[in-house]
C-alpha cells in the first residue's frame, strides 16, 4: 500500500475540496506524507518509538542501522550478514520485527491522534503512553512467536523453537535466570520495563 501511495495522507487530500489542509502537517508545516509520519514529524511519537527500537536492538547488536524510508518499506527483504557474508537469521528476523512493528505503531498513533483525538495538542499521546504501547506491542509479538512454536498444536506448520530463541536472545528481562529453552516458559518479556521512564525524553517526540 505504501509503495502505491494508498494511505490517506499527504497528497491524497490535495484534490478533495475542503480537506486540502489534511495534506500538511500543521506542526512541521510540511507535506504529511507517510515518509514524514514515519521519520520526520516533530509531534510526539515516531522519534521515541525508533529510540526504543534502537534501545532493544543494542541489547543484541552494537550498531543500529541508519533508517531511511526505503529501508522501512523494504525491511522484509533485509538480510543481515556476518564478516563471511553468512546470513544472521536471528538478527535479521529481529530487525524485521522491530521495523515492521514500530512503523505500524507510529501509523496507528498518528491515526488515533488525528481522528480519535481531533489532533488537539492537549490530547496527544504522552511519552509514557507511547513507550508503554510500544513495549506492549513488542511483548505481544514475542508471546505470539512462542505460541506459534507449539508443535503439538501446529504440527509441521509450527515455528521452529530455535528460530524463536535466536530471534530474541539477549533481549529479555532477567534472561540469565531463564532456562536455555524458555519458549514454553510463562511470563517471558523483553528487557525494557513497562514502568521505567525514558530519562531525558519527556519533551522529545
Give an overview in words.
The structure is a single chain. The protein is mainly α. The protein has one domain (34-177). It is 42% helix and 2% strand. The protein is built from seven helices and two strands; from the N terminus they run E-E-H-H-H-H-H-H-H. The chain has helices at residues 34-40, 46-57, 69-73, 89-116, 127-148, 151-154, 161-168, and strands spanning 24-25, 30-31. Strands 1-2 form a two-stranded antiparallel ribbon. Helix 2 packs antiparallel against helix 4, helix 4 (89-116) packs across helix 5 (127-148) and helix 4 (89-116) crosses helix 7 (161-168). Mean pLDDT is 89; it is low at 194-205.
Question: Can you summarize this structure?
Answer:
With 205 residues, the protein is mainly alpha-helical. The chain is 42% helix and 2% strand.
- State the distance separating the first and last CA atoms: 26 Å
Quaternary organization? single chain
Q: Average the pLDDT over all residues and give the rounded result.
A: 89
Which percent band covers the strand fraction? under 5%
From the alpha carbons, calculate the radius of gyration and give it in angstroms: 19 Å
Helical content, roughly? 40-55%
SSE topology:
Layout: E1 24-25, E2 30-31, H1 34-40, H2 46-57, H3 69-73, H4 89-116, H5 127-148, H6 151-154, H7 161-168
Antiparallel strand pairs: 1-2
Helix pairs in contact: 2-4, 4-5, 4-7
List keywords for this structure.
single chain; about 200 residues; two-stranded antiparallel ribbon; elongated; 7 helices
Amino acid at each position: 500500500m505504501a509503495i502505491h501511495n494508498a494511505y490517506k495522507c499527504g497528497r491524497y487530500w490535495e484534490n478533495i475540496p475542503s480537506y486540502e489542509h489534511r495534506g500538511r502537517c500543521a506542526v512541521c508545516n510540511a507535506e504529511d506524507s507517510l515518509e514524514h509520519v514515519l521519520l520526520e514529524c516533530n509531534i510526539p511519537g515516531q522519534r521515541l518509538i525508533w529510540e526504543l527500537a534502537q534501545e532493544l536492538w543494542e541489547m543484541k547488536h552494537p550498531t543500529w542501522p541508519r533508517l531511511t524510508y526505503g529501508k522501512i518499506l523494504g525491511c522484509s527483504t533485509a538480510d543481515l550478514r556476518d564478516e563471511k557474508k553468512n546470513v544472521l537469521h536471528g538478527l535479521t528476523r529481529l530487525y524485521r520485527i522491530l521495523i515492521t512493528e514500530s512503523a505500524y505503531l507510529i501509523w496507528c498513533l498518528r491515526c488515533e491522534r488525528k481522528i480519535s483525538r481531533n489532533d488537539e495538542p492537549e490530547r496527544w499521546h504522552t511519552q509514557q503512553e507511547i513507550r508503554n504501547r510500544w513495549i506492549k506491542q513488542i511483548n505481544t509479538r514475542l508471546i505470539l512467536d512462542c505460541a506459534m512454536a507449539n508443535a503439538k498444536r501446529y504440527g509441521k506448520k509450527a515455528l521452529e523453537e530455535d528460530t524463536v530463541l535466536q530471534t530474541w536472545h539477549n533481549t529479555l528481562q532477567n534472561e540469565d535466570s531463564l532456562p536455555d529453552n524458555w519458549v514454553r516458559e510463562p511470563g517471558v518479556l523483553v528487557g525494557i520495563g513497562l514502568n521505567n521512564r525514558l530519562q531525558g525524553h519527556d519533551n522529545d517526540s
